Amino acid sequence: HARHSRLEAEALAKELPAGRARVVALNLADAGVVDGFFAGLSESVDVLINNASLYSRDLAASEGMFQVNCHAPVSLIRQFAGQCDDGAAVNLLDQEIAAPIPQRGAYSESKRALAEATRTLALELAPRIRVNGVAPGPVLPPVWLPSGRMEKTIPTLPLRRPVALADLVEATMMLAANRSITGAILFVDCGQSLTS
Predict the structure, then answer these.
(1) pLDDT tens-digit readout, 24-55
(2) Which helix H or strand E contains 185, and what residues bound it?
(3) Which strand (E) or helix (H) includes residue 75?
(4) Full-model pTM
């Protein structure tokens, strides 16, 4: 799935084995479109990774943040469970679910709501579907972050470095593949949640 990065997604799909991937564009802020997503697919899916996220400092955007960051992933997991008898869903959260940042209000709240939904859905959909979460710390600087802010954060982390993208991918794939884990939230944050 891609929204704004369709060209990059199509390039990636071409690198995968023929017939194994196709690109679908979807606006997760539109609940009506999200609710029919799996009905529009011609094949079943056995792993769902909810990675899309929305952050805005505009208080008026809080409803949109809850839709993209929590309601859409929950809807997609329920639809996924309806078409799959043995699968895994992994939600990308944020390390700040352990210690919310007040200035990030609706974003923090929406990610904490998704963390709670992760645990609830793990119980509700077991034993057919496993639902887990990954809570990353600083991987890439967000576009809204003032320059130099991430450089100030890195020295405060116990591991003194940003999260390697490969480590985040590896943790996500492990949770998708491990058939004995459900309802877990794995912090991949170089220890940031320990210091908050």
Answers:
(1) 888 999 999 899 889 888 888 999 999 999 88
(2) strand 185-188
(3) helix 72-83
(4) 0.91
